[in-house]
Each structure stands twice: as structure tokens, then as C-alpha cells.
Design goal:
Layout (H helix, E strand, L loop, with lengths): L6 H6 L17 H4 L3 H12 L1 H12 L9 H13 L3 E5 L5 E5 L7 E7 L13 E3 L6 E3 L7 H16 L7 E7 L9 H7 L9 E5 L5 E6 L1 E10 L3 E2 L9 H13 L9 E10 L5 E2 L2 E10 L2 H25 L8 E10 L9 H12 L5 E5 L3 H6 L4 E4 L4 E3 L7 E3 L6 H14 L3
Parallel strand pairs: 3-6, 3-7, 7-16, 8-15
Antiparallel strand pairs: 1-2, 2-6, 4-5, 5-18, 8-16, 9-13, 9-14, 10-12, 11-13, 17-18
């Protein structure tokens, strides 16, 4: 079936309509929050117990969490949430692990989250290898940065707040989500914002990967498997009929010729092609998997239309190549995943708070655009960001992925905590 996605549909796919939001107290100045005696104690705790944070990162990473099979890792995070003293710890119907730190009075509800899943298939060796000779402690394993680092930050923040007895006005929800990576299509946060919890959440923060950047803009994506079909036949004896593989080739060439702007950035990619039986057979079925991306809903919708037009044109051109043939040729789109795009300016209070918190800790974070769990919240108009977890990483989504803590890796957990407290309010 031909599917054209208007911008509004891209933003709303499988997520309930935007709720009417209550007025929220403006975030506090992070520099002032950091002078609070209990907060200072918690910040110092995160630095002093950096080895504990790294131990969490390693031990969580060594529990496999392939797509749609995050339950074992989730059960362990649930156990750790309980051990850290979080309240009402539970696993929802989708598999998200949720724990609460109640506030002392009426105030905003802030979510601090990391994601459980990795991109790696079942059976991948996730044993962490250590190398302390590369200018800092280097940890190498699939998923060690994306997103075992995020989970470790969430755990360490919960632990430090409890140890320092920090009292917040608002409630903090600590969450480990499922399905953030490609095939999961953000199913964990879709569940959160598609159910009754959505009306109580005022701010959403995810911690994903390493570094010192804040994702303030959501890169949306539209992913399809496009299948070209015909009756097939012998490459010599049946020659003269439309060929699904040739039609796909024409479509790929047309996609490759699409012109995209650099601002707002938009991209396209044919990442997988498959099908056919033998070299001397006209294939009965071939397919290509296509990824379209942009932080602009309008541009993403335009790319979607151009992709469909390219496929339609390719099918017609292949049929026209053999005007005497009566053999059928068709193309079918199957949606792999739709992630909404959303633009949030750096003047938004939550973004300003994140940038100010970094400066208060002695570094200058930059804002960026990416595709993360925060996409869903942003698309609903909810103040949302994704923070890097400190340190540095390389080789994300590869078997050689590594996280290096550097000499100030503890700044990642400190940053996440200070932003969370500035949003939740401190007594």
C-alpha cells in the first residue's frame, strides 16, 4: 500500500495526541543549585565514587540485551533500583523499568532515563575488555557506551541523591527503557507517552552514549522495506518480461539523485538489498531497505514523497522497457519504523538549563541534533533533551565499540544530576 506521511502524521505515529499541559515552574539556576549543601555533597559523591559508576557500566553491559530481548538486563536494573532505595519500582507492559524518588511538595515530575537495548543480535560476545594504557581507562565491548554508559549514569545519580539526602520539590522518575535502537522504533518511550503516565511528566531527560553534548533537536526518520515482485523466470528463456531487480536498480538510481538541503540537514540511504534465486533466473522478488532522516518534519515529509515517486517511476520505466510483455510488476512498501522529527531552539528553558549546568561544572557543552528516546517527548511539545554521559566513545554500533573514561569522566553523572535537580527544584 502506498503510504505518504504528512508532517503531522510523522509526529503522531503510534503516540497519543498532545495532552494539555499544566503550567510548570521555571527551572532553577544550576549555578545556584550547585551551592546547596546537600547537592554539593552529592556532586562530590559522584566524583569520589566514579569507580562504582564504571563497575555498574561494565556489569550491566555484560548482560546481553539484543533487540526485543532486554528482559534479563531489565530485571537486573530493577533489582538495582530497589537496592538503591527507589520507590514503586516496577516493570511496565512494554518492559520499561521505572523507579521513583518522591518530591517533598507540589512540583514538576522529571524523567531521567537510559535505554536497555543494544543493536547486537543474540549470541554476541559482550564480555568487557579493559585497557588502561590509552590515556585513561578504556572499556571495549558491544554497547559499552550506547547505552550502558547511560544506564550507569542513571544508577549513579540515584545512588548519590540518596547518599547525600538531597530533597527535591518535584518527583524524579528513574527509567530504563526498551526498544530505543532501530528495530525497536522507540517502543519503550512510545508506551510511556502513549499511556496515563504522559499527563504527569513535565520534563524528559535521556542519557545516551558518551561525551559532553546536549541533543536539543530530534532527527526524525522514515524507514521502509520496498519489495519488487513479478512472476520470475529463466534468464534466457523468459527474457523480455519486466525484471524486479532491474526495477529496483532504477529506483535506487532515482533515490541517489534526490537533492537534499544541508540546513536543515536531510539524508537518505539504501542500506540493504536482497532477493533473487540464482544468477540465471529473473527474480520473482527482490527488496531494498531505505532510511530517510531529517530534523525538519517538513523536509522528512518531502523526502518521503520523493522516495515513493522514485519507486513508482522506476516500476513504470521497467514496464515501458518491455511494452509487449503482459507479465505483472509491482512494488510494495512495508514500514520498518517512523521516528518523529522535532526542532527545539537553544533558547528553550530546558536547553538553557543544560548548557548552564555544564558551564557551572567547568565545561562548555554544545547543542546537537540526533535520534534518541527524546524524539517522542519533543514531538509532543514536552521539554526534552538527551545528554551525553561524559568520557568519550568510539565505534558505536560496532563490535569494537569502546568507552574511555578520561580523567574527568565523572562530569557526565554530575551533569545529569545537576540538570535534573535544576528542573525538579531543590529544598
Amino acid at each position: 500500500m502506498r503510504l505518504l506521511l504528512a508532517p503531522a502524521l510523522l509526529a503522531a505515529t503510534t503516540v497519543a495526541a498532545q495532552p494539555v499541559r499544566k503550567a510548570v515552574v521555571a527551572p532553577s539556576d544550576p549555578t545556584r543549585v550547585a551551592t546547596n549543601v546537600a547537592v554539593r555533597r552529592a556532586l562530590d559523591t559522584l566524583k569520589a565514587t566514579n569507580a562504582w559508576t564504571l563497575a555498574q557500566q561494565v556489569s550491566v553491559c555484560e548482560i546481553p540485551a539484543p533487540p526485543f530481548k532486554e528482559a534479563t538486563r531489565g530485571a537486573e536494573v530493577q533489582r538495582r533500583f530497589q537496592a538503591l532505595g527507589l520507590k514503586h519500582v516496577r516493570v511496565d507492559a512494554e518492559g520499561n523499568v521505572i523507579g521513583e524518588r518522591p518530591g517533598t511538595g507540589p512540583g514538576p515530575t522529571v524523567v531521567l532515563s537510559g535505554h536497555l537495548d543494544t543493536v547486537f543480535p543474540e549470541g554476541t560476545d559482550v564480555k568487557v575488555k579493559r585497557d588502561s594504557t590509552a590515556g585513561g581507562l578504556r572499556l571495549t565491548a558491544p554497547g559499552i557506551a550506547d547505552d550502558c554508559r547511560g544506564l550507569a549514569v542513571v544508577l549513579s545519580v540515584a545512588r548519590a541523591l540518596e547518599a547525600a539526602k538531597v530533597a527535591t520539590t518535584g518527583r524524579i522518575l528513574f527509567v530504563a527503557t526498551v526498544g530505543e535502537e532501530g528495530p525497536g522504533n522507540l517502543r519503550g518511550v512510545r508506551r510511556i507517552f502513549g499511556g496515563p503516565m504522559r499527563d504527569s511528566i513535565d520534563y524528559f531527560i535521556s542519557v545516551d552514549g558518551a561525551g559532553q553534548s546536549v541533543t536539543s533537536r530530534a532527527v526524525g526518520s522514515a524507514r521502509y522495506k520496498v519489495t519488487f515482485t513479478g512472476p520470475g523466470g529463466h534468464s534466457y528463456g523468459a527474457f523480455g518480461m519486466p525484471n524486479p531487480a532491474h526495477a529496483m536498480g532504477r529506483a535506487i538510481a532515482r533515490v541517489a539523485d534526490i537533492q537534499v538541503p544541508t540546513s536543515p540537514k536531510a539524508t537518505f540511504n539504501v542500506g540493504i538489498v536482497s532477493g533473487g534465486q540464482t544468477v540465471n533466473s529473473i527474480p520473482a522478488e527482490v527488496s531494498m531497505e531505505v532510511d530517510l532522516r531529517s530534523e525538519s518534519p517538513t523536509e522528512l515529509s518531502r523526502l518521503d514523497r520523493l522516495l515513493h515517486a522514485a519507486v513508482d517511476s522506476a516500476v513504470m520505466a521497467e514496464k515501458a522497457r518491455y511494452p509487449r510483455s503482459t507479465m505483472p510488476l509491482a512494488a510494495k512498501f512495508t514500514e520498518i519504523g517512523i521516528r518523529p522529527a522535532a526542532a527545539q531552539t537553544d533558547s528553550a528553558p530546558i536547553v538553557r538549563t543544560a548548557l548552564a549546568a555544564g558551564r557551572a561544572l567547568g565545561f562548555s557543552p554544545r547543542s546537537a541534533a540526533s535520534s534518541t528516546d527524546a524524539n517522542i517527548a519533543m514531538s509532543l511539545g514536552l521539554p526534552a533533551i538527551t545528554l551525553d554521559g561524559g568520557g568519550r566513545e568510539q565505534g558505536s554500533h560496532s563490535l569494537s565499540e569502546y568507552y574511555e573514561d578520561t580523567d574527568r569522566g565523572w562530569l557526565g553523572p554530575q551533569w545529569a544530576m545537576l540538570v535534573t535537580l535544576a528542573l525538579a527544584g531543590v529544598r
